[in-house]
Amino acid sequence: MEYYYTYQTVIGEVSIVEKDNYIVRIIIGSYQGIQKETDLIKKCYKEILEYLNKKRKYFDIPIKINGTMFQEKVVNL
Q1: How confident is the model over 5-23, as pLDDT tens digits?
Q2: What whole-number distance in Å separates Cα of residue 55 and Cα of residue 43?
Q3: pTM of the model
Q4: What is the reported pLDDT for 76?
Q5: Which domains does the chain have, with CATH numbers?
Q6: Which residues lie below 8 Å from residue 66, measured CB to CB, with a gap of 6+?
Q7: Distance of alpha carbon 8 from alpha carbon 76, whole angstroms
Q8: DSSP per-residue codes, 2-64
Q9: 34-43 pLDDT, tens per residue?
Q10: Less packed terminus of the chain by CB within 10 Å, N or C?
């Protein structure tokens, strides 16, 4: 099941999408689907806030990228 939650941040609306205990999308703007603020989405949001406040450089959340081989290589550098 895929869940999302949208937050207001200093860069505007940010929607975080979780599926099967992985973050699968972070979207600037709104998202359509089943709205549910899960623990993983909350943790991701907290890490995004820390990043935006220059208190974090790396993310510790489980991320699953679905894209072309090139896109996956770029993300996993």
Answers
A1: 999 999 999 999 999 999 9
A2: 15
A3: 0.85
A4: 66
A5: 2-70 (3.30.160.70)
A6: 24
A7: 27
A8: EEEEEEEETTEEEEEEEETTEEEEEEES---SEE---HHHHHHHHHHHHHHTTS-SS--S-B-
A9: 999 999 999 9
A10: C
